[in-house]
Design goal:
Order of helices and strands: EEEEEEEEEEEEEEEEHEEHHE
Strand content: 35-45%
Number of helices: 3
Largest sheet: 16 strands, mixed
Helix content: under 10%
Number of domains: 2
Radius of gyration: 22 Å
Length: 352
């Protein structure tokens, strides 16, 4: 049976491809060297997949731009262990795409041949089936932080916790969770005349690496596993939708993201100038000592769409826009279509 979540293809790779921003902690290389970076994902959903090929920023440069240079004119394909070959077409500079669907139980790897004659491969990984993703738990919690003067500051946060059922299989999977948000925004609420409603996509999962080893799970049910927290504000006043993705990844990929997470925890941000490189699963067979950055992921995926609002969460939050002059209106309250990543078109899946 085909799993088709094509309508959400744009959601499947948020932040998954950020590994190219990370470097290894102890690295002795010249200041004028760049590294080839390959990032991509193949899963068991029928959709368009993208593989990005770039050169990293110059390592050791005083610049902190971390701007990558696209590698154009490469030949990119994905191969499986049954002799299948899937060619990717360059759709933009350094971006190679095609529609396909991985099959559970097959091993896949990527092959990149650059215009200057280099061949880059990833180590094959078997695509594992992702366990069912159960409804997530959302709760409003109070967070206390200290101001520069030492005064406690209280704020409300939405805590999202994951639930999944791991069947009693001989080989339990390693899991990684991702999320994308989307919320309803009303202009000039509560004015009933000529106000518009926008639907705004929200990158709620930035700088969040959440992985889980189900081998550590005593039973077959994982409940209330902390995933992410986000400010509980006007975004939840009407309706907020989480697009949730659960990936069944290999042990090698689990170790990779664990190392990335450790470095991020030290340095504070995936976008900060990194201290070194985290080695992924890519290599140059003709030059084994070459350091190839990035990761090519092979994963089974489970998807769930889940809505929250002030009624389901039980805590009121101000909607932000007030027609009767309670506070000055922001430009968004007068024209919500100006909000980045917003649309006046109601998604077909949106709950009343």
């Amino acid at each position: 049976m085909k799993i088709k979540i094509k309508d959400f293809a744009f959601l499947l790779l948020p932040c998954l491809l950020l590994a190219s921003c990370i470097d290894e902690i102890k690295l002795n290389i010249g200041n004028d060297q760049q590294r080839l970076v390959v990032d991509g994902l193949i899963a068991d959903s029928l959709q368009e997949y993208t593989i990005k090929v770039n050169h990293s920023a110059i390592i050791g440069s005083v610049s902190t731009d971390n701007v990558m240079t696209p590698v154009t004119g490469a030949t990119v394909r994905v191969l499986d262990d049954a002799g299948g070959s899937f060619d990717f077409t360059e759709t933009a500079a350094g971006i190679y795409s095609r529609e396909m669907q991985g099959e559970v139980g097959k091993a896949y790897h990527v092959e990149v041949k650059t215009a200057d004659g280099k061949t880059i491969l990833s180590r094959p990984a078997v695509l594992q089936k992702s366990p069912p993703l159960l409804p997530a738990t959302g709760r409003v919690i109070e967070e206390v932080t200290l101001s520069p003067s030492g005064r406690p500051i209280k704020s409300d946060k939405l805590s999202l916790e994951m639930n999944t059922e791991v069947p009693g299989l001989a080989q339990r999977p390693y899991l990684r969770w991702r999320a994308m948000g989307e919320y309803q925004f009303w202009e000039n609420y509560p004015n009933p005349l000529n106000n518009k409603i926008c639907y705004v996509k929200n990158n709620v999962d930035i700088n969040n690496i959440k992985i889980f080893d189900t081998h550590d799970l005593a039973g077959g049910l994982l409940t209330n596993e902390p995933f992410l927290t986000t400010s509980y504000n006007y975004r939840f006043a009407f309706m907020y939708c989480f697009h949730l993705f659960q990936y069944a990844i290999s042990e090698e990929e689990y170790d990779y993201w664990e190392n990335v997470r450790d470095i991020v925890n030290i340095d504070g941000s995936l976008f900060d100038p990194p201290p070194g490189t985290v080695k992924g699963n890519l290599y140059n067979p003709a030059a084994p000592n070459d350091q190839i950055l990035g990761y090519f992921s092979v994963a089974g995926v489970s998807y769930r769409r889940q809505f929250f609002d002030v009624i389901s969460l039980g805590v009121y939050v101000d909607p932000g826009c007030h027609y009767w002059g309670i506070r000055p209106q922001s430009s968004e309250c007068r024209a919500c279509a100006d909000i980045p990543m917003s649309s006046l078109t109601r998604p077909w899946y949106w709950e009343p």
